[in-house]
Amino acid sequence: MATLVLGGARSGKSAHAEGLMPSEHATYVATARVDPGDGEWAARIAAHVARRPSGWRTVEPADLAGFLAEVTGPVIVDDLATWLAGVMDDRGVWDGSDEGGLDDVRRECGRLVGAVGASAAELVLVSAEVGLGVVPATRSGRLFRDQLGMLNASLAERCVEVVLLVAGIPLRLR
What are the φ and ψ backbone dihedral angles of 42, each rounded to 5 degrees? Predict the structure, then answer.
């Protein structure tokens, strides 16, 4: 069974998703990449780490789809927007000129969606909802918004529950 928790920046989506997990044991899949030169980003990551129960195991798999295909038990993935940004970084697609790289991004998203659909684990997936804001002014911003929107929609099709957090309030969509 999979649950998708969507929300905007500072909507409370991560805390809500964490509250769906058992406190005694769960696997927390961290997708953020640490940048040693960015103290503010490191502080955000540390705040997430500090609020996790001590019984949780944290993993940072290089192959998220492969990991989800094999893992069992309760698992939270936080978050897919950060994961997608990393995939897009790795493929160098931000200027939109490399269609082959963008095809690779789409294939990787497809692998992830397939793994979620086939997973035996109790999954809680966290992702940013990017479809409610203004159209980004840059090509890279529009590209990211479009890719994440498509990923979220594909995942929502495979999830039993979909929740949108707005101003800290969970709205059950399914």
Answer: -60, -35
Q: Where are the beta strands (DSSP E) in 11-153?
A: 26-30, 56-59, 74-78, 122-128
Residue 94 DSSP SS3: coil
Check 15, 32, 41, 48 and give the catalytic one.
Answer: 48
Q: For the domain made up of 2-172, give the CATH fold.
A: Rossmann fold (3.40.50)
Domains of the chain, residue spans = 2-172
**C-alpha to C-alpha distance for 144 and 147, rounded to whole angstroms:** 5
Going along 10-159, which residue ranges are E strands?
26-30, 56-59, 74-78, 122-128
Residue 26 — very low, low, confident or very high, per pLDDT cuts 50/70/90?
very high
Q: Sort strands 2-7 and 161-166 into parallel, antiparallel or unpaired.
A: parallel
pLDDT at 102 over 90: yes
pLDDT tens figures, 103-135: 999 999 999 999 999 999 999 999 999 988 889
Measured between alpha carbons, how far is 40 from 29 in angstroms, rounded to an integer? 21
Amino acid identity of 2? A
Q: Which of 46-55, 74-83, 161-170 has the lowest mean pLDDT?
A: 46-55
> Is the pTM for the entire model greater than 0.90?
yes
From residue 65, how far is each of 77, 132, 154, 158 by CA, in Å?
A: 11, 27, 14, 14
> What residues does 4 pair with on adjacent strands?
125, 162
Query: Would you call 25 a catalytic residue per the annotation?
Result: no
